[in-house]
Amino acid sequence: MNRPASERSPAEKLLAWYDGHRRDLPWRAPPGARPDPYRVWLSEIMLQQTTVAAVDGYFRRFLARWPTLSDLARAKLDEVLHEWQGLGYYARARNLHKCARILVADHGGRFPDGEEELRALPGIGAYTAAAIAAIAFGRPATVVDGNVERVVARLFAVEDPLPGAKPALYRLARELTPDRRPGDHAQAMMDLGATVCTPRSPGCGRCPLAEDCAAFPTGIAERLPRRTPKAARPTRFGTAFWTVRPDGAVLLRRRAESGLLGGMMEIPSTDWTKERSRDGKALDRAPVEADWRLLPGQVRHTFTHFHLELAVMAGHAGDGWREVDGVWVPVERLGDHALPTAMKKVVRHALSHSAPVAGAD
Ligand code: SF4
C-alpha cells in the first residue's frame, strides 16, 4: 500500500514524480530498459557547457554515423572534429575520440562501472564519472550539475554563494541520493531543475518537493543560489594572416595539440596576448613573406574566459610559399575543414574585404 506523501522521503517523492514526468530525451533508455553506457557517455560529454536543445541534433548525427563505441574508435580524428563543429570546446571532441580508442584497446570495448576508473579516462571528470556510474550502471553516485546545485540550494535554503558553496551543496545532494534507482534519481534531479525548479519563476506549486523545501515558504527560492560576482572578462589581441597562393588557395595550419582550440585548423595567427602588438611587430610572426596589407575592422569572438580581437592581414605569398608549414586549400573547399568559429569569422572577414568566393563556410 502506498504511504501518504508526508511519510515518504524526498527521494521517494522525486522518483514517483519522475515516473510520470520524465523528459523524453534521445539518449535516455525507455523506463525499465537498461541504459547503453555509450549513449550515456556521449550525451554527457556533449551536454557539458551546452543545452539539451543544442545537443539533440549532434547526438543523433553522431549516433547515426558511429552507432557503437568501436565505430567511433575507428573514425579519424578530423571526421569527429568536423561533426563536432559548432558545439565548441573542441578539447572535448579530441578527448572523446581518445577515450573511445583507449576503451577499445585496453578495456575490451567496455566502460568501467566505477567512478574512480571512469575518471582515469580522457575527458571524464568527477561529474561525468558520477553520471555514467549512476545512470548507466546503477551505482549510488552523487551527480551534481548546475540544475542540481540550484535545486539543493533551494531545498536546504543555502545562502552561501557559489562557487564557494559547491562542497556543501555536494554533501547535501549526497545525503539525498538513495541506494534504490540512483540513476533515475540523478535524472529526476536534473529534470526537476530543468522543468520545475527553474532559475526564474520556479514552479513551487507543482513541485513534488514543495513540502520538504526550506526556500519555498520563505519566498527566497528565486534568489537562490547566490553567486559571487564574476570578474570582468579580459580581452586578448592577435593578428591572423589570410595568405593567398598564386592559384588562389589559402593557407591553413594546425594549432598545437595542447591549449585552446588544440589540434584544430586555423588561419595562421600570432599568439593571443594581453596587449595589442605594435604596428609591424605582428609581421615578424607572418607565415611567409607577402605583400601584407591590414584589412579594415577587427574580428571579435568571445571564449569562456576572455574576449578575442583579431586584426586580419591579407597578402599574396611570394615564392616562399613552397616552404611553408601548413595546407593550401582552395577557398571553395575551406568548408571541408573543421575550422573553429573564431576562424570562420576570420574567413568571412577576409572574404568580405576581397573578391567574394562562394562556399567558404
Ligand atoms: Fe524548487 Fe520551489 Fe520545488 Fe523548492 S518548492 S525545490 S524552490 S520548485
Concise structural overview:
The protein is α+β, with helices and mostly antiparallel strands and 361 residues long.
Keywords:
binds iron/sulfur cluster; elongated; Nucleoside Triphosphate Pyrophosphohydrolase; disordered C terminus; 13 helices; Endonuclease III, domain 1; 2 domains; alpha+beta; 361 residues
Q: How would you describe what is shown here?
A:
The protein has 361 residues and is an alpha+beta fold. It has two domains: 219 residues, Endonuclease III, domain 1, CATH 1.10.340.30; 118 residues, Nucleoside Triphosphate Pyrophosphohydrolase (Alpha-Beta Complex). It has 13 helices and seven strands. Strands 1, 4, 5 and 6 form a four-stranded mixed beta sheet that branches. The protein has a three-stranded antiparallel beta sheet with strand order 3-2-7, with no helix packed on it. Helix 2 packs across helix 3 and helix 8 crosses helix 11. The longest helix is centred in the first third of the chain and has 16 residues. The radius of gyration is 25 Å and the shape is elongated. The relative contact order is 0.10. The C terminus is likely disordered. Bound molecules: iron/sulfur cluster. Iron/sulfur cluster binds next to helix 9 and helix 12.
